[in-house]
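Figure 6 in text form: structure in, sequence out.
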């Protein structure tokens, strides 16, 4: 173990994330390499059990945990936190490439700590979130992606938001729909899904309307729902006057981001939840023509919820344990780790295999 406050965690289940698929296909931005150290074990969505614990780890072997896969100041050995960590925004830590550990955002990107697609990884005590006994592994493994959605919703969707548009109904988009329903119950949630099985899940998780059209038909439908008008430029794609108050772009493509900008009302916000490293074909005109705001969202942090401050991943576990969010219907496939190539091929086949969330069993 790296130190007395560290533990070894035997992974019980791991998820395949969209960012993992980008990584495997090598279509990530080279800019991200400054926060990675090689070689590393891929994977950050996890649930496991403590296999060994240092004397100051504060947890006993056998305890089931979710590892929050970020390595900010504290796990890196800094007694004085950076400004971001001090205010609770440890997802924006200034020292992801410094300290006692090699560079890396966290598990799945850092050479010395392992990743969820391995049998064992090590974690600092500050990363551990205990899993309640009544919460099954198949539920707890969603804590990490749900935490990403919780952070995006709490930080960027106001309580008074009217219509919230979610573009993309893969695992991240569906988790976002669920987080909206749990944390912003007054909002009207409109989801845009590409495939029928995704649309059914979006409706199940709480979307008030689910749209599967594309092109002009999609614009007409959104306009009808929010009382907007569709305007057609001399050249190019339509633009709404009026539109969604907040749009959460969860598909991570240039086309989805372009749609988000065009379907959001003047003065509204587009939140980039999906990962689009170098999006093509995006017309940024709505930023200056209608003052549409665009903001990114990264992982999770400490959130203010009512009178308390709580980590988003802890809140995610609470929502799962209380039954306020149940993402188990998203699990479409499970593979033993030794069949990871088949698991990846399945995860990429959203249409033919109807894949949503593919899980790996490292012990298998």
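Output sequence:
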């Amino acid at each position: 173990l790296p130190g007395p406050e560290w533990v070894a965690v035997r992974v019980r289940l791991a998820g395949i994330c969209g960012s993992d698929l980008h990584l495997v296909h090598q279509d990530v931005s080279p800019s991200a390499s400054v926060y990675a150290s090689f070689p590393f074990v891929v994977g950050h969505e996890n649930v496991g059990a403590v296999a060994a614990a240092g004397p100051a780890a504060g947890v006993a072997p056998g305890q089931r945990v979710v590892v929050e896969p970020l390595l900010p100041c504290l796990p890196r050995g800094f007694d004085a936190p950076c400004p971001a960590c001090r205010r609770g925004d440890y997802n924006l830590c200034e020292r992801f490439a410094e300290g006692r550990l090699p560079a890396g955002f966290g598990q799945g990107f850092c050479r010395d700590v392992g990743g969820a697609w391995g049998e064992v990884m090590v974690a600092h005590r500050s990363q551990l979130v205990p899993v309640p006994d009544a919460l099954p592994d198949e539920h707890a493994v969603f804590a990490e992606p749900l935490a990403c959605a919780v952070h995006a919703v709490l930080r960027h969707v106001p309580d008074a938001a009217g219509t919230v548009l979610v573009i993309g109904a893969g695992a991240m988009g569906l988790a976002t729909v669920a987080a909206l329903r749990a944390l912003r119950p007054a909002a009207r949630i409109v989801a845009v899904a590409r495939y029928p099985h995704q649309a059914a899940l979006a409706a199940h998780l709480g979307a008030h309307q689910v749209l599967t059209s594309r092109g002009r038909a999609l614009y007409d439908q959104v306009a009808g729902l929010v009382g907007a008008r569709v305007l057609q430029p001399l050249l190019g794609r339509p633009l709404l006057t009026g539109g969604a108050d907040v749009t959460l772009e969860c598909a991570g493509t240039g086309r989805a981001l372009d749609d988000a900008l065009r379907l959001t009302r003047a003065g509204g916000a587009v939140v980039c939840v999906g990962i689009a490293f170098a999006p093509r074909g995006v017309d940024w005109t709505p930023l200056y023509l209608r003052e549409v705001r665009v903001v990114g969202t990264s992982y999770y942090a400490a959130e203010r919820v009512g009178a308390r401050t709580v980590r988003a991943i802890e809140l995610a576990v609470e929502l799962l344990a209380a039954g306020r969010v149940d993402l188990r219907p998203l699990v479409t496939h499970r593979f033993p780790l030794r069949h990871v190539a088949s698991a990846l091929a399945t995860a990429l086949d959203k249409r033919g295999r109807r894949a949503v969330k593919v899980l790996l069993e490292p012990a298998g």
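Caption detail: The two ends are 24 Å apart (CA to CA).
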